[in-house]
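Hello,

Following up on my earlier ticket. Below are the two sequence lines again, exactly as submitted.
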Amino acid sequence: MREFELLQHIYSTAGAPSQRVLLPPGDDMAMVSLTGRAMLVAVDQIVDGQHVDLSTTPIELVGRKAVTRSLSDVAAMAAIPIAALAAATLPRDFGQQRATALFDAMRETADRYRCSIVGGDIAVHLKASSPLVCSVMVLAEPGPVPPVTRSGARVGDGVYVTGRLGGSLGPDGLGRHLTFEPRLDEALQLGRALGQRLHAMIDISDGLGRDASHLAQRSGVQIRIDAHRIPCHPGLDWRVAMSGGEDYELCFTAAGDVPHRLGELPVTLVGEVMQPAGPHGPLVLVRDGAQTFDGSQMGWEHRS
Amino acid sequence: MREFELLQHIYSTAGAPSQRVLLPPGDDMAMVSLTGRAMLVAVDQIVDGQHVDLSTTPIELVGRKAVTRSLSDVAAMAAIPIAALAAATLPRDFGQQRATALFDAMRETADRYRCSIVGGDIAVHLKASSPLVCSVMVLAEPGPVPPVTRSGARVGDGVYVTGRLGGSLGPDGLGRHLTFEPRLDEALQLGRALGQRLHAMIDISDGLGRDASHLAQRSGVQIRIDAHRIPCHPGLDWRVAMSGGEDYELCFTAAGDVPHRLGELPVTLVGEVMQPAGPHGPLVLVRDGAQTFDGSQMGWEHRS
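Thanks for your patience. The regenerated structure is below:
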């Protein structure tokens, strides 16, 4: 596999150059333009055997997920993606054809969300047995509201989730964790609809329990979730829906009225932001009838 | 190894927050401010066994190189670094202590060049035998001159290199490829001294031969290099100096007078930008007495 030729292929097949891209790939750095003077950045990795399984996952879905995972971070800030960079270390026996298909899928996915891939780096493992590692860095700029952080939740806010949760990883390894839509448009709609009332937001990658605990910890609050309100995918228990992860839906807190739908996507009130529970209290409290559970740990159980 | 704890350590020990960093690490994305509305980006990877050798290289130098490689790309554009993101996939048995030392070294190196690490991602390989992969994305903004690309070389320009070349990889695996200084300040000095006469630039990572061929190819010219002018490290033949790589010195083309030194660093005229040699001619022609060589290939030899 010739790394230089692969990079050339990627550069030469890049989509129509966006007006945003002042210097396209192929130099020591690429250059993009902003409409303001603030830039958001994040990076995510996928590793074969952990986030994807190359033995069963079509390579197009591997490339897709490498990009959509990072775009989900952009959605979580209610920001607008501008450009991305992709770096991959490929197994020795990966082959030119699969490498090209991987990068084509990354480029097509990024283009679909108006986010040009402006740079990259390719390395090849010495051994065939070393797994694919693919990292994607995404650049974004603020949308209709200032970036919505994890730290802005206020006592009394409603806690909401978009879509339905749970079961993203199918028994065959496929499923929604590969095909989810990053909620970019929906996050911008939320920003426009709620303005400054949209207090805190995160995308659900670790599971609603852990991700709500990130919100709670960063905001210095407790989050109470009502188990019966959690919008589970059909046939799933709330415990599965809360702990499964890789939903890539949005969890946000807001004051006042919130739309019940964003386009086709339902928005569900699942709980409330509470006073912090003290140093030993749970960050996330799940209420199921008369029982309460520590939702950030799910192992800890408290009978009220 | 707890990935979340390691990230917390990295975030909590981050240097004094720069005024540049509007949102520090710890959210879905970080936010930085620019002085203008253009942003440069690049990504580079290091893989154990290829760019470093964990069995012999002190971990501090691994972290250092992961960052300085990307900063060398910033120097090659005569740009100013702003911030960086780091993503790593660690071998299963890497250990918390080494992981912390790796990220501390990355952070300290980045801070030294006024380039805060504002985000990151950590994954752990399933197997102890899978190699460390570490990618660093760097953000920069234009310096005193517009970014100096690879494509601006003009016929008649002088071709220059900074410092001395060759022997960066010592017989013990250590050496300058681990300890080099990215030529950030020197590139800015060049920009200020030469202004629009600084036509094209690249950092020498693949070796002067290959990197000059990148300049020539992107600029649509031929580059002639005079072998006896190449500033080799003591005791090295020009062939070694041209093909060794990982010098991370600058190679640039410019019109008119050029300073002989940038601070302590020598600047050497090594050749000239020529008319292109046609579709089958060499991109880089090395002249050694009466002989000429294809410097971009080094295997091809033409006796004049």
